[in-house]
Design brief:
By secondary structure, this protein is mainly α. The protein contains 20 helices and no strands.
Length: 524
């Protein structure tokens, strides 16, 4: 398993470095094929997992605890939320929270002719942006994480994707089927996180250029990825309870500071009103947006936006799912699902409102200029907005410095969390994997992000997430099926209370399962 996944990633890196133009062509063709033939599948899958997550939370399974019946959560709510949000979307939302609303403000399929750049277009733009960062994505994460947490803490099995397949395949999870599932999870995690790190490096380069006049170039972005990857590897070596937990809490404090900065120094009354309007507008339209498929076969918008996002969320599912499973021991299924669905969605909506509506306010009622800046260089959206808020040199410098610091800390948090997850996967569920694995994979993730930038920048990053999501989506469907099969066994139709003695209804001895996993590891 460890050798196979390393060879796969090494092949990709070498192929892209040696033939960048040919590699870029292949990646673009793959993206076009999936967008043309599997748009319906990605759209249906996101809505299906959200529906399933809500159903599970309020079903008779909601009271089942992820662990022993008397077990308490390992982390308090603030630490738990800080870690899952920081690992989940922190660096990505920093990149898109202004750029995406401004793009949709100019053009999207839901605008009538002549409606672009108007107040009506602004509301549609915010609706779409919050939709892409809202419940549908977190529904995918919730179901991925729930399966992992349930089989690990409720059934006593190792923290690995193959454990979630045991109710379907039984002993065969110790062979090629199990290896394939874990390998696809590694593949999705590497390319999902590489997408975010590439975006973060581009924006970090833009921020440093704004502060210190450093040239914006692919080479500088690769250098930034290299430095941050080393820092992330050191954090991963310290484990969850030290580096990752501390950095995640620090991220949330910085997030509070920057959101307060924009809210207090920006158009406060307008932003608070916009937040209430955006939440209501999103909730009214979330179902229809989640089921909409572009009827125009030549349309490019959905492939560039919604499919990219759903691919990104699915590709991230093994990473974020395993990470939130790792930190969710002791919570009930209902608490887990509602926490994962609601808290990050509300914060994401607030974040996008504060950043995005500030930019739109400047466009509609202020000096303007953000649209032109985004169209010229998407990475400058955040820093151009700070300049056009007309706060004065000192406050603008402070705001930009906070944003760059957040980019660094969210970058490190995402990379070190992903490193720990990949190492756990290739170690067959060992939550304290060997240091040599952490070093290798911490640097490998950075290498993949770097070569994707060299192979085509943003388009290559988008393609990576969309392509990586397709094979792993099959695993996600199977683990979800296995989860409900086991849940039904744990609670028979005539029972209304939990019986802890039925914890091994999956018919697997956890100790024997661990032994077989170790044997499978030595073979792979």
């Amino acid at each position: 398993m460890a050798i196979g996944s390393a060879i796969l990633v090494a092949f990709f890196v070498l192929f892209t470095i040696l033939t960048p133009e040919y590699a870029g062509l292949i990646y673009a063709s793959a993206k076009h094929f999936i967008a043309s033939n599997f748009a319906w599948y990605y759209i249906a899958l996101a809505s299906f997992f959200l529906f399933l997550a809500v159903y599970t939370a309020f079903s008779r399974y909601g009271s089942i605890r992820l662990g022993r019946d008397d077990e308490k959560p390992e982390y308090n709510f603030f630490s738990w939320f800080a870690m899952l949000f920081g690992a989940g979307i922190g660096i990505g939302i920093l990149f898109w929270s202004i750029a995406e609303p401004i793009y949709h403000f100019q053009n999207n399929p839901f605008l009538a002719q002549g409606q672009a750049l108007t107040a009506e277009a602004a509301q549609v733009a915010m609706r779409i942006s919050i939709f892409h960062w809202g419940l549908h994505g977190w529904g995918i994460f919730a179901m991925a994480g729930l399966s992992l947490a349930y089989f690990t803490y409720r059934k006593g099995m190792p923290l690995s994707v193959r454990s979630g397949l045991y109710p379907i395949f039984g002993e065969r999870v110790y062979g090629p089927i199990g290896h394939a599932a874990d390998l696809l999870a590694v593949f999705g995690t590497v390319f999902g996180i590489a997408t975010s790190l590439g975006l973060g490096a581009q924006q970090m380069n833009a921020g440093l250029s704004h502060l210190f006049d450093i040239e914006v170039s692919t080479i500088n972005q690769v250098l930034l990825i290299t430095v941050i990857s080393v820092l992330a590897t050191l954090s991963a070596l310290s484990g969850v309870n030290k580096g990752i937990k501390i950095l995640s809490e620090y991220n949330m404090h910085l997030t509070t500071v920057i959101l307060t900065f924009f809210l207090v120094l920006g158009p406060t009354a307008y932003l608070l009103g916009a937040f209430a309007t955006n939440i209501g507008d999103y909730l009214v339209n979330a179902v229809s947006l989640g089921l909409w498929i572009d009827p125009d076969p030549k349309g490019q918008w959905q492939g560039a936006w919604t499919l990219f996002y759903w691919g990104w969320w699915i590709a991230w599912a093994p990473f974020v799912g395993m990470f939130i499973a790792r930190i969710s021991k002791g919570r009930t299924i209902k608490e887990f699902v509602l926490g994962v669905l609601l808290a990050p969605t509300i914060l994401a909506a607030f974040w996008i409102t504060i950043f995005g509506n500030t930019a739109i306010f400047i466009e509609l009622f202020g000096v303007g200029g953000i649209t032109e800046a985004v169209n010229k260089d998407i990475t400058m959206a955040l820093f151009t907005t700070l300049e056009l808020m007309e706060l004065g040199p000192l406050l603008t410098l402070i705001g930009a410095s906070i944003c760059v610091a957040m980019l660094v800390t969210y970058f490190v948090t995402s990379a070190d969390s992903a490193t720990l997850v990949i190492c756990t996967l290739i170690s067959m569920g060992d939550t304290n994997p060997p240091a040599r694995f952490r070093v290798f994979w911490g640097l490998s993730i950075g290498a993949v992000a770097g070569v994707l930038l060299l192979a085509g920048g943003l388009k290559a990053l988008q393609t990576a997430s969309i392509v990586a999501a397709l094979p792993y989506s099959i695993v996600l469907i199977l683990t979800t099926w296995a989860l409900f099969k086991s849940l039904r066994q744990e609670l028979s139709p005539n029972e209304t209370t939990l019986d802890y003695n039925k914890i091994n209804d999956v018919n697997v001895d956890p100790i024997e399962h661990n032994k077989k996993l170790k044997a499978a590891q030595s073979i792979s």
